[in-house]
Amino acid sequence: MPANVISGKEVSAQIRAELKDEVAKLAAKGVQPGLAVILVGNDPASHSYVKGKEKASIELDFYSEIHRLDENVSEEEVLLLIKKLNADPKIHGILVQLPLPRHISEHKVILAIDPRKDVDGFHPQNVGNMYIGLPAFLPCTPHGVIQMLKRSGVEIAGKHAVVIGRSNIVGKPMAQLLLSENATVTICHSRTKDLPSFTRQADILIPAVGRAGTVRADMVKPGAVVIDVGVNRVDGKLVGDCAFEEVSEVASMITPVPGGVGPMTITMLMYNTVESAKRHSE
Ligand SMILES: Nc1nc(=O)c2c([nH]1)NC[C@@H]1CN(c3ccc(C(=O)N[C@@H](CCC(=O)O)C(=O)O)cc3)C=[N+]21
């Protein structure tokens, strides 16, 4: 039996409807969630993501600012803009689109963001708090994955979750959030020997590699849940890390690309911005 396809668009719509209620409650208190996005340079993919964030901001009636900066802007100028946004009471969330040009330090930029406005959850204070189970902004992509699992009725506790990838943005926090949900977690990566021997043990398999065709049907345990975080362009088409057609013959549930984790990432960004606005209004 082919797998059920978990629609990121549908789960997103559900969460966005809940957020709309929260936004209305805030409006009654005279607060409008405000999100500032900083985009440096002309990477077409980044521009397309930022458009998605802009669309979601309008849909949810946020106040939104997009700062499009020239590729050659200095690091100081970016840091200065962040300082201004940190101090701006209209702004509850600040996101600097990554990757940045090489002459700008990603680390310095992230450190400059007020952790209370770090809706990406990339500041070391939020990363650390997440790690020890204190309140924190959770990183949007892994948090989106957890929401997709929970809202599709997937039990996480006691399951063996295998994450492929160890980036600071997806792999590492993904493993940590699954651990917080009481999964048994394995992290695989580019130096893992005999990847299929691990993936075949997964009840929940989460490839986050960025290479199309990384996961094939013979690497998946029958009945496993597969959440594909990969985003790859192949012949101008967007695909995930899984060979979708064949893996869906083996898995019990699978997420598509596009229409899976991508929309959830944006929705959880909106969620964090509403959370920030709520804290601000308390
Ligand atoms: N500071 C920062 N925070 C991020 O969250 C961040 C970032 N930098 N840099 C780039 C990555 C990537 N990312 C995506 C968001 C939405 C889709 C998305 O909605 N994708 C659609 C398709 C979009 C299309 O067709 O191009 C989908 O999968 O259905 C994908 C990727 C956020 N990122």
Automatic annotation (TrEMBL):
EC number per UniProt: 1.5.1.5, 3.5.4.9
Pathway connected to this protein: One-carbon metabolism; tetrahydrofolate interconversion
Record's catalysed reaction(s): (6R)-5,10-methylene-5,6,7,8-tetrahydrofolate + NADP(+) = (6R)-5,10-methenyltetrahydrofolate + NADPH; (6R)-5,10-methenyltetrahydrofolate + H2O = (6R)-10-formyltetrahydrofolate + H(+)
UniProt domain Tetrahydrofolate dehydrogenase/cyclohydrolase catalytic: residue ranges: 6-120
Molecular function as annotated in GO: methenyltetrahydrofolate cyclohydrolase activity; methylenetetrahydrofolate dehydrogenase (NADP+) activity
Residues given in the record as NADP(+) binding sites: G165, R166, S167, V231
InterPro entries: Aminoacid_DH-like_N_sf (IPR046346), NAD(P)-bd_dom_sf (IPR036291), THF_DH/CycHdrlase (IPR000672), THF_DH/CycHdrlase_cat_dom (IPR020630), THF_DH/CycHdrlase_CS (IPR020867), THF_DH/CycHdrlase_NAD-bd_dom (IPR020631)
Keywords: Amino-acid biosynthesis, Histidine biosynthesis, Hydrolase, Methionine biosynthesis, Multifunctional enzyme, NADP, One-carbon metabolism, Oxidoreductase, Purine biosynthesis
Keyword Oxidoreductase in record: yes
Source superkingdom: Bacteria
Domain Tetrahydrofolate dehydrogenase/cyclohydrolase NAD(P)-binding: 139-280
Function according to Swiss-Prot or TrEMBL: Catalyzes the oxidation of 5,10-methylenetetrahydrofolate to 5,10-methenyltetrahydrofolate and then the hydrolysis of 5,10-methenyltetrahydrofolate to 10-formyltetrahydrofolate.
Subunit structure: Homodimer.
Family according to the record: Belongs to the tetrahydrofolate dehydrogenase/cyclohydrolase family.
Protein name: Bifunctional protein FolD
Organism: Effusibacillus consociatus
